[in-house]
Amino acid sequence: MAWVYLLAAGVLEIVWAYLMKASAGFTKPWPTIGMVVFMIGSFGLLSLAMKTLPLGTAYAIWTGIGAVGAFAVGAFILGEPLTPLRIAGVTLVVSGLVVLKLASSH
Q1: One digit per residue, pLDDT tens: the chain, 106 residues?
Q2: Could you tell me if 83 and 29 are in contact, meaning their C-beta atoms sit under 8 angstroms apart?
Q3: Is 57 helix (H, G, I), strand (E, B) or coil?
Q4: 73 close to 105: Cβ distance less than 8 angstroms
Q5: Most buried of the four, 31, 63, 85, 103, by CB within 10 Å?
Q6: Residue-number span of the structural domain to which 29 is assigned
Q7: Rounded CA gap, 106 and 82, in Å?
Q8: Which residue in 74, 101, 56, 82 sits closest to 14, CA to CA?
Q9: Domain tally for the chain?
């Protein structure tokens, strides 16, 4: 169950990161409120995952899911550029996540 919690926490992190962007520096109330709600949910699920998973693995994978997801949202929803170096960078992050998962005994 810990991996399910961790995956869900990562997805919620992507949502709150997008809402943070949509809040325009916390000047728009609904995106700001949504961001706080999704942030609390993300942290709550992360804490449940950390009951079983090692800190380093759980935190790195949570932030990695958020980083890769935010990259995808930026590229495919917000129209941010997909340059070869950016793609290489996100590929390295994904590779690191796979190695961490394979190295986990849980």
Answers
A1: 999 999 999 999 999 999 999 999 999 999 999 999 999 999 999 999 999 999 999 999 999 999 999 999 999 999 999 999 999 999 999 999 899 888 877 6
A2: no
A3: helix
A4: no
A5: 31
A6: 2-103
A7: 34
A8: 74
A9: 1
Q: Give 49's contacts (C-beta < 8 A, 6+ positions apart).
A: 2, 3, 5, 6, 9, 58, 62
**pTM passes above 0.90:** no
Residue 103 carries which side chain, given as an amino acid letter?
A: A
Say how far residue 14 (Cα) sits from the centre of its chain.
5
Task: Let me know: does 31 contact 83? Beta carbons within 8 Å.
Answer: no
Other beta carbons within 10 angstroms of residue 38's beta carbon come to 20
SS3 77: coil
Tokens 């929803």 belong to: 77
